[in-house]
């Protein structure tokens, strides 16, 4: 085999590997804005029906929404978790999704359907149930871990076409954003993306704690690259309070790693070349 042929093969393999690595590269992108929800909950993701109802079509497209309202439970008639409801302020509220919800302490996570001064304010235009964090000690971070690992492991029982999927989109309605609020997104224990109150307020020119302005009450969209495997997120707050609603996840089938596929093709080419040389 000539040196020219050898060099050509090496260059081709290197190019394939480089292309494979590039196709896997990328980072989460964050954007703002959704659509007006028709169920009275303010804003929701533009990728689902404005009613926030989980239908067969919604599921087939790989989207699920948590509204914290029993009226939008899926499947219809399924039970929900009311352990975070507030006595006298949570009629019709519950956590519907099959999630592992772990607050950092007692009383850190609550679900309610009204606003109370110095306790929590519903996101602008939201007249339904919403979730919020309350710090154990003001000025000290408290958090709520929301884990989709079990959901992802069992989503194929809801729709077989979604088996083996991972989350490549998450959206949520963030209410009266404060400088002491933040969200972090993880692949297991590895941080893959985050957004803080100061970042959002600077981006939209909002004011901390404003309960009515669209610049301080907005729908946040986060798109994750194929190289990322987001499966849990954390809501963090050190003040009163961190409010959120209409949490939407979008699923995507996990593609075969391109770099490994191209490596296999390259090695196969080299092996065939050696065979023909013999």
From TrEMBL:
Residues 1-27 form the signal peptide. It comes from the Bacteria. Keywords: Signal. This is PEP-CTERM sorting domain-containing protein.
């Amino acid at each position: 085999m000539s040196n020219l042929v050898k060099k050509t093969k090496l260059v081709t393999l290197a190019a394939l590997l480089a292309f494979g690595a590039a196709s896997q590269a990328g980072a989460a992108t964050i954007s703002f804005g959704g659509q007006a929800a028709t169920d009275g909950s303010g804003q929701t993701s533009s990728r689902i029906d404005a009613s926030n109802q989980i239908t067969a079509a919604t599921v087939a497209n790989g989207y699920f929404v948590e509204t914290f309202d029993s009226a939008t439970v899926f499947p219809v008639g399924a039970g929900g978790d009311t352990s975070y409801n507030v006595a006298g302020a949570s009629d019709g509220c519950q956590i519907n999704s099959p999630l592992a919800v772990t607050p950092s302490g007692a009383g850190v996570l609550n679900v309610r359907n009204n606003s109370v001064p110095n306790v929590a304010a519903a996101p602008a235009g939201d007249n339904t149930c919403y979730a919020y964090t309350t710090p154990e000690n003001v000025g000290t971070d408290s958090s709520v871990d929301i884990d989709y690992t079990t959901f992802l492991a069992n989503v194929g029982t809801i729709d077989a076409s979604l088996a083996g999927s991972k989350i490549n989109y998450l959206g949520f309605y963030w209410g009266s954003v404060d400088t002491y609020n933040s969200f972090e997104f993880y692949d297991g224990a590895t941080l893959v993306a985050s957004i803080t109150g100061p970042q959002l307020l600077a981006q939209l020119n909002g004011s901390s704690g404003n309960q009515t302005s669209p610049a301080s009450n907005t729908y946040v969209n986060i798109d994750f690259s194929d190289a990322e495997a987001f499966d849990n997120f954390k809501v963090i707050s050190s003040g009163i309070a961190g409010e959120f609603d209409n949490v939407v996840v979008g699923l995507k089938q996990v593609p075969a790693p391109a770099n490994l596929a191209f490596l296999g093709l390259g090695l196969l080419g080299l092996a065939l070349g050696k065979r023909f040389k013999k």
